[in-house]
Amino acid sequence: MARLVLLPLLSLLAMPGHAGGHFDIDDAGTLDPGQCQYEVWGGRFGTAPVTDYHLGPACRVGPVELGFNVDRASVPGQYAYGVGPQLKWTFTEQPDKTDLSAALFFSAVWDATHGGRAGGQFVVPVTWHALDSLWINANLGYDWTPGSGERTGRGGLQGAWALNDNLWLVAERFRAFDTWTTRAGLRFNLTPTISVDMSVARSGPDRVRGYAIGLNQVFSR
Fold it and tell me: What is the pLDDT of residue 4?
């Protein structure tokens, strides 16, 4: 039973957004040419509960952003490692250059502990620059679970509001693996290239609580 809990989580957690950190909803932006980033975060989710630790480096390569994700998801007495690549392509102008932009995102994840078929995600992120300080991000796509290959739809909305240059409020509502989740949190820009995220979430009809904290850094190659 523990493995059945962990396998969907490996797919769910293998999707760090370009500006999303541990938040589920991605924006439509990619890194600038010559830039790289890494995201490191950890959190607890679900009724088990599942503890996850994530590392996700990525770089801009030509017109696309390429990354590689490593996750360790665990419940008491059981754990699983998920590894796999991700690719993101903004096929419109970048969000900071236009009011409406869109991208394509794909990631794959393998259960490196138990073996089996790959899982992953395909998502279309759209970003609307509604106000000078407000960004609305929408996602639509699907997940497939390592091992079974079962596909489920995903989608949701996120609002990101800049209180000032260093502090953002982020709230999102999304559905993944047939479960609705609401998450709200903060992003602190420690420097122009380093930020810290923290959030709390409630999932499912029982409103199970989760939380996460992460560090993100962008740098030039």
Answer: 45
